[in-house]
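Batch job 17 of 40 flagged for manual review because the log was empty.
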Amino acid sequence: MTPENPIIALANHSVNAQQRTLSDETVSRTCMVLLDTVTVGIAGANASYADAVHRIAPSWGMGGSCRVLGRGAGFPAPTAAFLNAYQIHGQEFDCVHEGAVVHPMAGIMATTLAELERLSGGRNTTGISGQQFIKAINSAVDIALAIGLSSTRGLLFFRPATASAFGAAAMAAQLRSYSLQQTIQTFGHVYSQLCGTMQAHTEGTAVLPMQIGFNARNAVIAADLAEAGISAPEDIINGPYGYLQLFEPDGNITPLIESLAAVTRLDQLSYKPFPTGRATHGGLDAIQQLQNQHGFSAEQIATVTLTAPPLIPRLVDRPFSKDMAPNTARLSMQYTGAVALIRGTVGLFDFSTESLHDPAIAELANRITIIDDGTEDPNALQPQKLEITLHSGESLTTTVTNVYGSPSNPMDEATHLAKARHCCEFAGLSKDATTTLIEEGLQLDSLHEIGDWLTHAWRENII
């Protein structure tokens, strides 16, 4: 391993996380990111296939102290990490870094919850303050996004899974107070287990969000292997069979390493106002803009055309079909666009069997077309131009250059909190627990014990 190996810089960034000074704005954003992630994960307790996954999980081993958001206790840490990651990403509602095309928090938070539960023995006492937790999370996000932003091509592997694995591994190493060398080894072990391809996204299968779960689980196992002193490869970024050779060919991590100490990547995250693939959000934002400006009804619409960068049709051009599953519908501009045009927005309850078989939605979805605008950037999500033609012949158009929920077009606090309440309502979390979870979540930096906040997210508060 040479001094130039970027894994050393990433490991140093993790080991020294508590020495970093964060701005007040970053601290506040981190509190909101954590609240968003946990409430989305709570909603995921009722996600499609959540019951099926939880039926299977006990066969992988029981008897641990680790709990799952909205579900209960009794799992070993690796299994709990898998389940929580699936729940956080399973409804496409978790935050995302648009430039990297990475959802860093699903894997990072899932591994973190498992490690905290193991650390406390399921008793909510971790010995970690809110301030310490916030610094650790920021370091882990920096690492995941340094990996994600090193890409110069379109997605081959499922980057939300592969890149976030490094952040998850960093968090596991931090919570175990690992040395620099142990952290490097943890990275090597998680790289050796890295998985997740874009084929699951292309086919819109239910295993897609589970790929983040596999890597969150593997981050826990990686930390275990490092603790046992089992050797792992170290030249895992630029080596002949490293990440930038196999997973992201032609990638370049050097500028990301150089900016590690100077740039707080968590500040660049986008939040999701809709529980759908981020690639649908430009179109959904444009729909709401035109609805607010012109007040037309769905019955007046003749055709809808969205012209967008090639990543958009690649990810979400999925014509509606009567047998479309909820996980596929979340990744369909046609279905989600029709829902927004008829109901004014898209929420967690809009992927029920009843909604998926609504003939009005099906009919309107068939009139929505997506066109590739030829943009050269393979990871670009914008600009997006929406044109709605009415039966009267009138044409309504708007162009979205900053998608709603991004740092340049942010959701306000009221919208964030409404989303958190919507997630808790969907899961059946009690109103008292929801209120406390939100109030304490906004002030995490003042907590002496992070476990005091997380206790409101477990099964005993589900009614």
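Reviewer: the log was empty due to a logging misconfiguration, but the result itself is present. The chain is about 50% helix and 5% strand. Unflagging and moving on to job 18.
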